[in-house]
Design a protein that fits this description.
Blueprint: H1 2-22, H2 26-48, H3 50-67
Helix pairs in contact: 2-3
């Protein structure tokens, strides 16, 4: 009985670790997806409203400041 229990726990641990490895980069991909959605929304606003132009200008200014330009 002892070996059977140990084998079950070993299998559970193996499955848990394999699942964890598959999810390792998931958060980065989710953040990238959110960023893409935000960029699309800002792009639509920039093409249709003056608020979009203001937002786009502010974002570009911040990017220039970060890049040292």
């Amino acid at each position: 009985m002892g070996r059977t229990v140990m084998k079950r726990w070993a299998l559970r641990l193996h499955v848990a670790m394999a699942t964890r490895r598959r999810d390792a980069g998931q958060t980065s991909i989710e953040y990238l997806g959110i960023a893409v959605v935000i960029v699309v929304i800002i792009g639509v606003l920039a093409g249709t409203t003056s608020i979009g132009d203001t937002i786009l200008s502010a974002i570009l200014d911040k990017i220039k400041a970060i890049a040292g330009g």
